[in-house]
Amino acid sequence: MKKLILDSLGKSKHRGLNFRDLLYNNEARAFFFQVITFVLVVGLFYTAIGNLFENIEERGINTGFSFLNNRAGFDILPFLGNIVVDYTPESSNLTVFYVGLVNTLVVAFIGIILSTLIGLLIGIARLSNNYLISKLAGGYIELFRNIPILLQILFWYNLFINVFPHPKQSLAFFDIAFLNQRGLYLPKPIPEDGFLFVALAFIIGIIAAYFVKKFFKRKHELTGSHTSTWPYTLGLVVGFPVIVYLLIGSPLQFDYAVLGKFNLKGGMAVVPEFLALTFALSVYTATYIAEAIRSGIEAVDKGQKEAAAAIGLSPIQSLKLIVLPQALRVAIPPTINQYLNLTKNSSLATVIGYPELMSTFGGTVLNQVGQAVEILAMAMLVYLVISLFISLLLNYVNKKMEIQGR
Fold first, then answer.
1. Which of 62, 137, 161, 404 is most buried, taking the most CB atoms under 10 A from its CB?
2. Domain ranges, residue 49
3. pLDDT, tens digit (0-9, with 9 covering 90-100), for 209-251
4. Same domain flag for 144 and 287
5. Which residues contact 336 (CB under 8 A, 6 or more apart)?
6. Percent of all residues in the chain with a pLDDT value above 90, rounded to a whole number
7. Does residue 342 lie in a domain region?
8. Does one domain contain both 171 and 260?
9. What is the reported pTM?
């Protein structure tokens, strides 16, 4: 572009510097329009930010991030974030940020897994030859997709706290787990010295299982001989850490919940707010994933299914080995959007008091310190980073599943 403009200017010297050549040159004109647009956008942002800081200064609002070191001074509903971060009311506002971040990541991670499993099953069921199963799957999609997600969160939360029994009449499962209005009480793991080696063995097992699967895949491509890798995966990912765990001397103890006079004591409580939020997000997002799976299966050429039947594959084998691998190439791109929506919709947990990022840091801390710009900017940055990471990961998977040309 620069060379084009210089050439035009050089030619115009012989004709007395005529700019009409540049004016009627499409590429040069497009370049100048881009420069003008960029200057206008930068000027708009500069003016808006300048006005923002002027208004903040006029109203005497404090700026900066020193508030992160201040004492929080409030309780947070006990959940996994409190265990990982070890939060108390004497902790700082920055600790509140970490607690909310952990709880948000937990909801997003579990919600993505559940919605994927439900969506995959419903998407396949909708194409079933069984009339009842197909219509039930279609009814599920139409029901949950057309009810606002906020209303579903409130519905499931109120259902859980009203259906589950009082703590004194908790439902017991072999005296290990208990279910009541205050949540699901599970044994709380307490790692001891040496447990780090068990965690390292688990990570090493996952890495080794990946290379084993890759080795047998390459062998299959070269020889055509298929080897089932799930025994190797099970042995490396589960068996190897268990052996290390036993050799070290069981470096993991559990704190079990015990029924007291009025409530259960000890253990780890999975609060009803988390159950309601995760369930609502999962069943809602699964409707869109199911439609993506259905469209992907229908996009597979009919000849592929007929060829699978011709070589003697059962319907389940055909679905697993032929249809789904091709359908996922179509289904993954829209599914990425649903994962991002699920993660961002977790901020609606504020309405039921689940201690995620927006309800704790963007809610309680914001009301205490009043520094909305810094707090909301941090929250926006967190959601942006999480969304970009999910998008990057799924786009990598999508790239690996593309048909490789010669």
1. 137
2. 2-58
3. 989 888 888 888 788 777 788 888 889 888 988 898 888 888 8
4. yes
5. 390, 391, 394, 395, 398
6. 27
7. yes
8. yes
9. 0.80
